[in-house]
Amino acid sequence: MHIPESLQELADSEAVQFLKRPKTVARIFTGVFSLIVFSSLLTDGYQNKTESPQLRCVLNSNSTACSFAVAASFLAFLTCLVFLALDAHEVRIAGTRFKTAFQLLDFILAILWVGISFVGFCFLANQWQHSPPKQFLLGNSSAKAAITFTFFSILAWIAQAYLAFRDLQNDAPVPYKRSLDEGGVVLTTLSPPSATSPVNTPVTGPNSLSYSSSALSPYLATPKAPRLAMMPDS
């Protein structure tokens, strides 16, 4: 294991550069918000009344609200961990065909979690608004924390969706490039011969009947004018 010798070397290390990336920061914040939501509801989100030992959700005694918030935030936390691990190995998949698919999946999941977080925030806030003020002795702070950090999760997922969309725009598809040999063949076939290029004369044998124009004698190539003969006087 390499130990950095100075603060500058530590700042220039790959781990620190990875943690300073905007996408990594957004994923860390989203994971922390999701962790706060489901941990607060798991610890103090279920309370019992003084007259009954049965545990009930502090959000208007609606177990669906607590279950939805715990399950959604836990899955969001796992999603952040998985994509953090994939981002750490992004160099290995940078040159493969899976990079575009990975970025597209990142963008789609971020948009999906924006919608889920927004629905969860509205649902939890509505149930907390209809909850009796002194129904449970404990759990009020946990409910408020879950609602608050669910709202923060919406902003964090929006940031992740924006960063994923920007990566999709920057990752333009590589156009198809012909090889040098193929390009040379195409150019030679399609381009007309220039006036300065030498004329390739066909190789003929001794019994061949084909002749090149350059091999003809100038006397045969140029027609002669008829001569006038003088007739002797009779």
From TrEMBL:
Transmembrane residue ranges: 24-42, 62-86, 107-126, 146-165
Any single GO CC term annotated in Swiss-Prot or TrEMBL for this entry: neuromuscular junction
Protein localization: Membrane
UniProt xrefs under Pfam families: MARVEL (PF01284)
MARVEL domain boundaries: 18-169
Membrane topology, from the record: Multi-pass membrane protein
Main location as per UniProt: membrane
Keywords, comma-separated and alphabetical: Membrane, Transmembrane, Transmembrane helix
Similarity annotation: Belongs to the synaptogyrin family.
Name of the protein in its database record: Synaptogyrin
Organism: Tupaia chinensis (Chinese tree shrew)
Taxonomic lineage: Eukaryota, Metazoa, Chordata, Craniata, Vertebrata
